[in-house]
């Protein structure tokens, strides 16, 4: 064990009020969400090859996979209130 020396690392002391410590978080503001609060999760099965192609397309466009798919679905299924004129 030569060369290791005495470690300067120490364990953090346990907080006295654990519940308050947990609810306080780490002091960082929450990250902004790219989607609205009123969302629903949609799960689909795709082949691994299709998943790779979708992820690559999202990366090339600078989007997340979820944002790309949301945009594609919104384009394929427009809001009826904003329907296109004949």
Summarize the structure.
The protein is mainly α. It has three helices and no strands.
From the structure above, extract its key features.
single chain, 86 residues, mainly alpha, RHH_dom-containing, Ribbon_hlx_hlx
What does this structure look like?
- The protein has 86 residues and is an all-alpha fold.
- 38% of the residues lie in helices and 0% in strands.
- It contains three helices and no strands.
- The protein has helices at residues 18-24, 48-61, 65-76.
- It is elongated, with a radius of gyration of 24 Å.
**Beta-strand percentage range:** under 5%
Average pLDDT, rounded to a whole number, is 78
Order of SSEs:
HHH
Distance between the termini: 81 Å
Please estimate the helix content. Answer: 25-40%
DSSP summary: helix tally: 3
Specify the overall morphology.
elongated
Layout: helices, strands, pairs:
Layout: H1 18-24, H2 48-61, H3 65-76
Helix pairs in contact: 2-3
InterPro entries: RHH_dom-containing, Ribbon_hlx_hlx
Pfam families: RHH_10
GO biological process, one term: regulation of DNA-templated transcription
């Amino acid at each position: 064990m030569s060369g290791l020396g005495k470690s300067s690392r120490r364990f953090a002391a346990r907080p006295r009020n654990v519940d308050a410590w947990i609810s306080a978080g780490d002091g960082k503001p929450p990250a902004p969400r790219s989607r609205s609060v009123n969302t629903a999760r949609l799960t689909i099965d795709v082949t691994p090859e299709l998943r790779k192609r979708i992820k690559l397309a999202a990366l090339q466009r600078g989007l997340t996979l979820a944002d790309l798919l949301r945009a594609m679905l919104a384009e394929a299924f427009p809001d009826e209130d904003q329907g296109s004129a004949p």
